[in-house]
Amino acid sequence: MQLQLIRNATLKLTYGGHTILIDPDLAAKYSRPSFTERSLNPMVELPLSLAEIVDGVELLIVSHLQRDHFDAVEAIPVALPVFCQPGDEARIAERGFTQVTPVDDTLDWGGIRLTRTPGQHGTGTVGRMMGAVAGFVFTAADEPTIYWAGDTILYEEIYAAIKRYQPDVIITHSCGARWPDEAGERQLIVMDAAQTVALAQAAPASIVIATHMEALDHATISRAELRAAAVVADILATRLLIPADGEVLYVE
User: Fold this and answer.
1) 2-250 CATH
2) Full-prediction pTM beyond 0.90?
3) Which backbone phi and psi does 165 adopt, to 5 degrees?
4) CA-CA 20 to 30 A from 75: which of 67, 94, 134, 166?
5) Band of residue 84 on the pLDDT scale cut at 50, 70, 90
6) Which residues contact 176 (CB under 8 A, 6 or more apart)?
């Protein structure tokens, strides 16, 4: 597999002989409002041109429809097949996409098997406000098994998925983003450094790739802070990869 982090949660995956674009947020730097009054979003530019990002893409996968996962997608050909969680297909089709398929459980496409997995995008009222999210497991002949957890905190279903699918690679969203509850207290809505480290410890046979970092102003964890937490926990740098925007990773 070849995985390129574009920015935030946007990934370009070459897998099973195909090229897949995941959670495309192609918006320009500072084109959206702030979440915390710290900065406009996204806080960084795309590392590649739109033409380079969409070049060769054969499939689009969208975990959920928050704007940092599906925004400014006009550069993506609308005839591409799109896979999403049930309930999101109508809104994606409203953007012009003509081949939108909700993934109820498992489907096969081009020699790749995709299995949708649950996520929990926060707890209590914040989790309900964030709404339904999805992750996906990818399997294909002669490829590592990938578990892309998506926008989720670490909770029992993540451990269950690791046990069930025995992934070679786990992709996490690890910026420690927080959102205020009804009392104004900011609650965790994706994994932070401690949860990412705990996940890596729970999956000692897996390579963990931490993404969704340093792009949005409600994040609380930097790449350097996550790396430092992994060092303290004695997790090998070869087991926890923290790519820069635009960086390409290869896993056999």
Assistant:
1) 3.60.15.10
2) yes
3) -100, -15
4) 134
5) very high
6) 188, 190, 191, 192, 193, 219, 220, 221
Instruction: Determine the Cα–Cα distance for residues 139 and 145; give it in Å rounded to an integer.
Output: 5
Task: Evaluate the omega torsion of the peptide bond into residue 42 and state whether it is cis, within 30 degrees of 0.
Answer: yes
158-196 per-residue burial string, b: 16 or more CB within 10 A, e: under 16: beebbeebebbbbbbbbbbbbbebeeeeebbbbbbbebb
Residue with tokens 């959102």, as numbered in its chain: 179
